TrEMBL record:
Source organism, top-level taxon: Eukaryota
Species in which this protein is naturally found: Dichanthelium oligosanthes
Gene3D superfamilies noted in UniProt: P-loop containing nucleotide triphosphate hydrolases
PANTHER family per UniProt: OS07G0160300 PROTEIN
Name by which UniProt lists this protein: Adenylate kinase
Signal peptide: none
One Pfam family this sequence matches: AAA_33
């Protein structure tokens, strides 16, 4: 108990493009760690009434600002937290690493099977287009072509240098791999962070 109380809060930062399995893995990790899950899309979905009043980019950055503030409050309370967002820009990671007293760990979702990734994204997109989800996800790409345009718009900026921030890369499209197995691997990785210097940690795939 004393060791748990002295351990710093961990900010588990998800990273990856839409449809890469981030949300599914994030929920499993939060359940395994029994800690709050903060989803950037929950905030972004709530900005729909403002869509005609502000630029999409402004609402997107507002969503991040709210996310960082809520995360900061959890860390101040000594709670670890899982943050589900694309983490598409280095500035977003910098905002997390500036949270005082928190250890940031990146969980990057990298779908190895492109066709399975495409199938999942377009299945979700079709559900949203047909009114599924109660309006949630209206701002996400609904087709593979929309995702490709989004990725092209990043112009490679999503592949930024993360420095000495610990990172684990997981393939969410591996056949017959249960999400709870992925979550267990991530939790094991997080546990190892406190046992070795972060500069010696390297990403690994499975």
């Amino acid at each position: 108990m004393a060791d748990e109380q002295s351990a710093p809060p961990v900010v588990v930062a998800m990273k990856g493009h839409p449809g890469s399995g981030k949300s599914t893995v994030a929920r499993a990790i939060a359940a395994a760690l029994r800690c709050p899950l903060l989803d950037k899309d929950d905030v972004r979905d709530s900005t729909l009434p403002l869509e005609d009043l502000a630029a999409a980019g402004m609402l997107n950055e507002l969503s991040y600002a709210v996310l960082w503030r809520v995360a900061e409050r959890q860390v101040q309370l000594g709670l670890s937290v899982v943050i589900d967002s694309p983490l598409s820009r280095r500035a977003h990671l910098d905002a997390l690493t500036r949270l005082p007293g928190a250890l940031v760990v990146i969980v990057e979702c990298h779908p190895g099977d492109k066709e399975e990734w495409r199938r999942r994204l377009e299945k979700r997109g079709a559900a949203v287009a047909n009114g599924g989800g109660g309006g949630d996800g209206w701002h996400k790409p609904k087709t593979w072509a929309e995702l490709e345009r989004l990725v092209e718009g990043y112009q490679g900026r999503t592949d930024y240098e993360i420095g000495d921030v610990p990172r684990i890369v997981v393939d969410t499209t591996v056949p017959a791999v249960d999400v709870d197995v992925i979550a267990a691997k991530v939790v094991g990785f997080i546990s190892s962070v406190g046992l070795v210097p972060v500069v010696e940690l390297t990403p690994f795939y499975y």
